[in-house]
Amino acid sequence: MDIIINSLYSNKDIFLRELISNASDALDKIRFMALTDKEVLGEGDDTKLEIQIKLDKANKILSIRDRGIGMTKDDLIKNLGTIAKSGTSAFLEQMQKGGDLNLIGQFGVGFYSVYLVADYVEVVSKHNDDKQYIWESKADGAFAVSEDTENEPLGRGTEIRLHLKEEASEYLSEDKLKELVQKYSEFINFPIYLWTSKEVDVEVEADSEDEDEKTASTEDEESDEDAESKSKTKKVKETTWDWQLLNDVKAVWLRSPKEISDEDYANFFHSIAKDLTGDKPLSWTHFTAEGDVEFKAILYIPPKAPHDLYENYYSNKSFLKLYVRRVFISDEFDELLPKYLAFLKGIVDSDTLPLNVSREMLQAHNSLKTIKKKLIRKALDMIRRIADEDPDEADEKEEINDNEGEDENRGKYTRFWNEFGKSIKLGIIEDATNRNRLAKLLRFHSTKSGDKLASLDQYIARMKPDQKDIYYITGSSKEQLENSPFLEQLKKKGYEVIFFTDPVDEYLMQYLMDYEDKKFQNVSKEGLKLGKDSKLKELKESFKDLTKWWKELLASENVDSVKISNRLADTPGVVVTSKYGWSANMERIMKSQTL
Ligand code: ADP
Ligand code: MG
């Protein structure tokens, strides 16, 4: 006990989460039993599956009460009394090895965290199969269980009374408890109530005055009939007590998507993303994963990228909130999404993961890999859907019905691309498994795209019959590239060339080798083949001496070879990068990075 108390000391808050999670488990159990036997719920208040928190400030008692399954005398002894139960010793063993203290819940010893804040604990419990019992212990290794004849009968369930330590008086504040519940247990599946006081103005009757007298004194005779007994009142302050609901029981993700309005989704986004702008999220996906690993999730694309999304790319934390069976575990859990999708916000609620596990433990958990895989897939599907539903994305010929109702989706993908396009590119670099899926989401300008953005699928649809490769060129801006001599011949022959103008594009193209069996060819590099040219051989022969002379002359300038080529139209000569060398643009980028 000493080890538990001392080692968890810095994280006292967790006791409430542990108690609420136990209460919720007990409620889950009775609810499950009630599925087959409604009788077990009893009647009246006992049927209310809820959790109540109450403060007795004068006596420094914090009590948490549930109407769950309760504990029999044996249960109390077995579950709470036996400190030597296997979980405890396993936990202590881990602690001695310097394990993670937050593991406490995992070893089935979460209950003992009550001694972080209390020096005396009473547990009153009533199980359907037994009388009401009281368990009490002072954290000294001893406990007592006896039939409870003193306290009010509970009907069914458990009340845990913490006699708070002097140094734990912060938990005697309603605000503090509210804050903890909202932080850790907001989405517990059962209502959590706090017994709360409120100062209200109440109208009390002033000195008793005769009604008839008043009516008589009314000046306006016509309204006599309406002027009912308006007794003289005065306002006074009065303290009233009431149960205040602390959580939104209808956890959004547990409901069927059909029942959830767009507004609900937006509100939920704002609550979890702590986004105060009020802008609607760009899109969301809400789904249930079934099979070996079961979980529910809602993923959001925020309306805007955080300003430092790419500056702090590698240190950014993901924004997903991880729940295990409605119990909040962590929102800094990095292993649920790859870096390139860290801009997503949302929640994952898993039924498969163990409750209250530590970060280290979760990382090693196999289900986690499956969850991650499915989240990525769903996120990419969602992004794809934005593109599919955006009328601006369609090819001109597909754009038949241009009705105004689609306005909401119009230009949405461009908005997405402008905010998060770089993430897609980083994804192509980082995620080999989903490279092709991500490549489908790429957008760019090209020699044929005009003002619009084009996709690789559109490019392929526009390819010329004899064209084998996808042509692209890299540089610092579209304007600069449009006049590049490298494009002369290609434009003349009607081939489309992609403009890649973002510095990351150079890296991107080192990973994106092909798409739909078509290779990518940088037109400023060696290897561009523009069909057969019968004249080429002849020209090579007649300019042999000149090429040789050039080569010797430029040997000291890092020139590899000098060739006669058909890639130009009007410009007499051009410097081309060798196949595996850095493009001129890449050289420029590297240079700017070292400056
Ligand atoms: P865990 O919740 O991981 O089992 P705890 O130390 O938190 O470990 O609780 C120990 C056991 O005590 C629980 O498994 C449960 O059987 C019992 N228990 C604790 N709190 C309650 C409660 N409010 N109602 C019914 N049983 C409870
Ligand atoms: Mg527990």
Layout: helices, strands, pairs:
Blueprint lengths: L1 H6 L6 H23 L14 E6 L4 E6 L6 H9 L4 H11 L21 E9 L5 E6 L5 E5 L9 E8 L9 H11 L7 E14 L5 H7 L15 E13 L16 H12 L9 E7 L5 E7 L17 E6 L2 E4 L14 E6 L8 H6 L1 H24 L22 H19 L4 H6 L4 E2 L9 H7 L7 E5 L3 H5 L5 H5 L4 E4 L2 H9 L2 E2 L2 E5 L11 H9 L1 H11 L29 H11 L1
Helix pairs in contact: 10-15
Bound molecules: adenosine-5'-diphosphate and magnesium ion.
Description:
- With 595 residues, the protein is of the alpha+beta class.
- It is built from 18 helices and 18 strands.
- The chain has helices spanning 2-7, 14-36, 73-81, 86-96, 174-184, 211-217, 262-273, 359-364, 366-389, 412-430, 435-440, 456-462, 478-482, 488-492, 503-511, 534-542, 544-554, 584-594, and strands at 51-56, 61-66, 118-126, 132-137, 143-147, 157-164, 192-205, 233-245, 283-289, 295-301, 319-324, 327-330, 345-350, 445-446, 470-474, 497-500, 514-515, 518-522.
- The chain has an 8-stranded mixed β-sheet with strand order 5-4-3-6-2-1-7-8, covered by helices on one side.
- A hairpin with a 4-residue loop joins strand 1 and strand 2 (61-66).
- Helix 10 (412-430) crosses helix 15.
- The radius of gyration is 35 Å and the shape is elongated.
- Residues 211-222 have low confidence and may be disordered.
- It binds adenosine-5'-diphosphate and magnesium ion (MG).
- Residues 18, 22-23, 25-26, 66, 68-71, 79-80, 105, 108-111, 158 line the site of adenosine-5'-diphosphate.
